[in-house]
Every structure is written in structure tokens, then in C-alpha cells.
Amino acid sequence: MATITEHDVSYGDDKKIHYLASGPAENGPLIICLHGWPATAITWKSQLDAFATLGFRCVAPDMPGYGQSTARHEVSDYSQQSLVTGMMALLSHTGRKSAVWVGHDWGAGVASSVATQHPEVVKALVTLCVPYRTIELGWKGFLPLVNREIYPAEEYEYGQWDYMKNYEENFEKAVAWFDSDIAGLLKAVMQPSKPAGSRISPFANIRKDGGFFGGAPKPPSADMIPQAPIIPADVFSRMVKEMEGTGFWGGSAYYMNHESNGVYNGRKEGKLSMPVMFIHATRDLVCDTKTSRLAEPMREHCSNLTEVTIDVGHWVQLEKPQEVNAALTRFILEELPGEWPGFWESGYTKRKTIL
Questions:
Q1: Exposed e or buried b for every residue in 165-203, given b needs 16+ CB within 10 A?
Q2: The model's pTM
Q3: Which domains does the chain have, with CATH numbers?
Q4: Which Pfam families match (predicted)?
């Protein structure tokens, strides 16, 4: 198991990003992993361990609003423009000029924004569940791609993204509901996925139901959920403690910047020439990339695209870490062989003898 160290980088007007790092600091090819909602850096522990063991330098920040990073109650702190500024400060702090960027959920949106705005710092882009050229463009990036056979517009105006509209209409109420039992909510959210029954996501009825979990007055308590979460106990315990420290305000404010995000990323054509990999999760009913058109803009904007499908729910790198790590390893070997640790100095020689 790799040694994980902790670091801080200051940037902007008294803001800070806290990050975890593993692997050789001087010559390990750099991978940066960005988490989404809700999580903290420690949820990338499987990747921090695996890729450090292979000789990479693997870095995972507490994204702004989470963990030990700055978590101010300022909506603009969580716009894509502000988040990209933070990621560029993080990259600079590593002493590197570029990296392989990996993102899940909102972390995928931020990694995609980095690729859009600063392609020169992205050796390769890897996104899980959320394709490039969607969520980072605001409502216009994903709402038109809803599968209207599953979500007729007259009944589901916002499709499976209804919960995002709920944030805009009931932000403080939603945050207060999350904060009323953080441990219980996180345990409920991070349960093993099951094959989809109905293709209708429960997130499509949030406003109709009056909130999450069918409008329940608060999340279920942890002791009401007999099954363990999908992540190791020590990782889950640290994440809960960190989420209880910040609450959900900052993490939820990512959903409050759709208009400014559309303007910021909409100014760029967004065509990518570097290698891109996207990991589909077949059981993800919100980020539904298998029966909707959500992946189409990515396919139109990426000239070197690899797609991988894993039969799992939204928390793909947590529930199936071996499969995700294997896909990322193969992708780097095939698309970025020069980034493999020791590629240029190990004297690796292959000989064939005819017998």
C-alpha cells in the first residue's frame, strides 16, 4: 500500500486547496483525480494506491467546498471559471506543466473545463459517468439531450435533471436537508448498485415529491441501513468526518452556476486532439449515457476517443475500482506509452529467439 502525503496550496483571495498525493514526486508521471458530489479526496484511495505502486505520481484534491479545502458560502467560488483557477494552482504546486486528468461526476465537469480552457496542460482526459462537453456548459449542455421517450417533456420538463432545478428553486432547504444527517445520507447514497428496473430515475421527481427520498423529512439514519457502504470503512469514516466539517453548502453550490458556466465554456469551440477516455456506467439512471444522446457532443468534439462500459451504478470508481484502474492502465499504455513510468530510462529490452 502506497504512502499518502497531504499538502496545501494557497491561491486567489485567501483560498486553499488541500490534496493527497502518492508515488514518486520527482519523476512519476502525473495523474490528477477530481471527485464529484458528494465526496472528498480520500475516495480516490484505490487509485492513489494502485498508480503509486506502478510508479505514477497520483494526486487527488479535496475539491473547493469539501474536506480541508476552502468552503466559503460564496456561489461564485463554485463556478467552472473559479474551479479551473484552483486546478491550475494545484497543477503548478505539483511542479509539473501537464497531467493526465481524471474526473467523476462534477469532477468530470471540472476536468472537462480544464481541457476546454487549457488543453496544453492535459496530456489526456478521462471522465467517468459525465461526458465531455455536457455539464460544464450549463443547462444547454445536457438538457437538450434528455431521452424524451423515457421522459416526455409535458410530464418531465427537466427529465432526470429535475433535482438540479430543485437546487435553483430550493437551495437552502435542500442543503439543510442534507446537513440534517450527513452520515446517514452518505451511507444511503453509497450502497451497491442494482440492475435498473424502471428506466425512470427517482431524481426526475424531486420537485414533485417535495425533496429527496420521496420528500422524507430527513435522510435515513446510518443505523437504519444494514448494508455497509461500497467503500472501505476507514475511507468512509474519514469522508463522513470531512463532510460533517464543511456541510453540503459548497458542494451543492456547483449546481448554482449553470448560466455563468455556459458563458465561460461556450466561448471555446472545445475540439480536443489529445487522447480522451470515457467510462460509461450502465446502471446510472441520472448520467444515462447508454439510452440517451448524452455522449454525442463528446463524440463530435474528440478526435481520439476511447469508450469503456462497466456494468455498475454511478459510483463506478468506488464500486468497481479494479475495473476502472485496469481501464485507465490500458488506456495510458496504448495512448500515452511515453508516460509509462521508466519508459525513457529503464533500459527495457525485448528479445525474441527463434527455436
A1: bbbeebbeebbebbbebbbbbbbbbbeebeebeeeebbb
A2: 0.96
A3: 5-160+257-339 (3.40.50.1820)
A4: Abhydrolase_1
